[in-house]
Each structure stands twice: as C-alpha cells, then as structure tokens.
# Entry
Amino acid sequence: MRITGSAGDVDDAAAIAILLVAEHLVLREGLRQLLEAEPGFTVIGDVSDPEDAIAVARTTEPIILVVGFSGRPLIRIVRTLHQLAPGASGRTIVLTTKIARPHVLQARELGVSEILLKEASSRLLVETVRSVAAGGRNGRSTAPSAAAEVVAAPAAPTNGSATKLAFGLTSRELDIVAAVRRGDSNRAIARRFSLSEDTVKHHLTRVFDKTGVFSRLELAMFAIKHGLGEDAAVGVNS
# Structure
C-alpha cells in the first residue's frame, strides 16, 4: 500500500485526486505514471487491498479506479467498498477484461460511474476520469466509455436482417463482429474460421469503415448496441 496524501493535501485545489485499487504492483505503477503525467491529476495513493481503499475513501473523496482482481469477484469488491465508504458511490471507475450487459447494470446499481475494458486507450481513461470528476455518470458522461454505450443502448431491433443490411456487413464480417464481441483475439478468430491473421485484419478494417468505429472496444460496444452477434455475448472475466 502506498498513500501519498489526501485530497485536502493537494497543492492545486482544482486537481483531481485519484486512488488506485489494483492487485498487481506493476499495473498500479503504470497507471500512476500515466495519470500523474496528466495536468490536473494527482494520485493520492495506490493499494492492492480494497480494505485499504475503504480506509482512504472514508476520509477523502477521490476518484477511485478499481482494476479487476483475479479470483475475487469484482462486483463483491465494489459492493463492499460502497457499503463501507458511501462517498465512493458515483466516483468509482472499474477497469476489467470483458463485459456483459447484466454485470454492467449490476455495477451501475451499486453506484459504479463508468466501466472500461483494459484494452481501452489511455486517452479514453483520462477522459473518463475527468468526466466522472465533473459529475458525469450513469450513461450521461461525455466520455464514450463501454458502460455508457451499453447502458444507453436501446433494445436490439426485432428485424435483425434489416439492421445487418443497413450497415452493409457481409456474412463473414458479421462472424468477425461476433468474435470481437466475444473477446477473441485476431489469432483466435483466424483459427476459428481457417483464415490468416492478415485476412482477419482486412475484414476488421472493412468492418470499421462500415460501422464508423475506430477500435475493437468501440466495435464490441457497437455490436451490443445494435444487437449484432447476440448469441456470442460474453460474461465478465475480471
């Protein structure tokens, strides 16, 4: 555990105080360096045990970044954190490996502000921290986070063929979309469909162009929002 101060100790009163909760030291150090390099951010501590985070969150009001723990249910960690430190509710960002709508909704009910996939860009993480600090949450934040997209997503259209036609996706491209939504890597997709990895990348480029997304994360969220690859939906592996 490393606690470097409290929100009240920050020299710049306008600085956004952040508390990191992550199992692995290397990950915490990497996130600390990334966030502290951003103007207006200060990391007041990084801890490996959620209980330590509770102690800090009771006395200060930082933005809390919780990263998925192996072998420890993420939802349970968040529930405990918010029960024992009510001020953390509405100021918590979760970083996890995979996401499913039921888990997103459950996390929202517990007061989680945003959920990001670990493959999200550093820019998206920074924007999300700023948005949550400004009060953005529950799908209304300005940061295009995974959770905001999922929670704000309308029900899938009943006419699936019309949706597919609208985006001009071929049958193979829809297979690729479903695999990305499932969380498969390019190598896994190539093996599944007996393709080369270069061919998979070519298909992804065409899918990105047709759907107007710029990353695998955005594509997965786009697929959830529009009901593409529904039978390939995944759970959370935190």
Remarks:
- The CA atoms of residues 79 and 110 lie 6 Å apart.
